[in-house]
Amino acid sequence: MGSKNKLKRFRENETFGNVLQPSREDAMAGKFELKGKWNTDFFKNDKPIVLELGCGKGEYTIGMAERYPQNNYIGIDIKGARFWRGAKTAVEGGLDNVAFLRTQIELIEHFFAEGEVAEIWITFPDPQIKYKRTKHRLTNAEFLQRYKKILEPGGIVNLKTDSEFMHGYTLGLLHGEGHQVLYANHNVYRNEGAPEIVTTIQTFYEQQYLEQDKAITYIKFRIK
């Protein structure tokens, strides 16, 4: 994507009522005013809040919001030029149960209060295979504890990935730490028992993976 195109998208994001781009400094200083007030002040309803972490273009966030209007959805990514597409689609389609938050995922506790989130989706994250990159792996022990703080009691985390490494790493960690694995499958499109939401919504890259006959894995779990 050219720099002109990026700038155009950044400017357009600033006009969208469903895009929030707080500064890191304000977040760290506790100045993000929607923390604990997403339902009352932003969505203006009491529907459960579902996050998509590393939402990319926002296809999954939008897909869930369209199919399951009983929830509110927030796509989170540091790259605003990417989720511009999802934000624009939501605005044009009149989807009022969607928001996009531009931030780094390690700051997530600064944006949501304890127990404010019902469910988290992690879709096709970078598996960060190199050992020195493990601190950035979105299902490592530290990230799980961050999620636990903002999830309601019994809240769900979903991991959908094309990476067998990420699937195996996460499953091993969950079992090792005693978390509750509710469902796990290493090839959901070959398994008739896979939850509908996993196979009916596909990202752009997921469609490409499927064309290459690449297995898509899925884990649904609760953090103890």
How much beta, percentage-wise?
Answer: 15-25%
What is the average of the pLDDT values?
94
Note the run of SSEs as H and E.
Answer: HEHHEHEHEEHEHEHHE
Tally the beta strands. Answer: 8
Radius of gyration, in angstroms, nearest whole number: 17 Å
Q: What's the structural domain tally?
A: 1
- Count of helical stretches: 9
Can you walk through the features of this model?
By secondary structure, the protein is of the alpha/beta class. The protein has a single domain, classed as Rossmann fold, CATH 3.40.50.150. Helix content is 37%, strand content 21%. It contains 9 helices and 8 strands. The chain has helices at 3-13, 24-28, 38-43, 59-67, 80-93, 141-150, 164-177, 196-200, 204-211; strands at residues 19-20, 49-53, 72-77, 98-102, 117-123, 151-161, 180-185, 217-222. It has an 8-stranded mixed beta sheet with strand order 1-4-3-2-5-6-8-7, with helices on both faces. The longest helix has 14 residues, at 80-93. The protein is globular. The N and C termini lie far apart (42 Å).
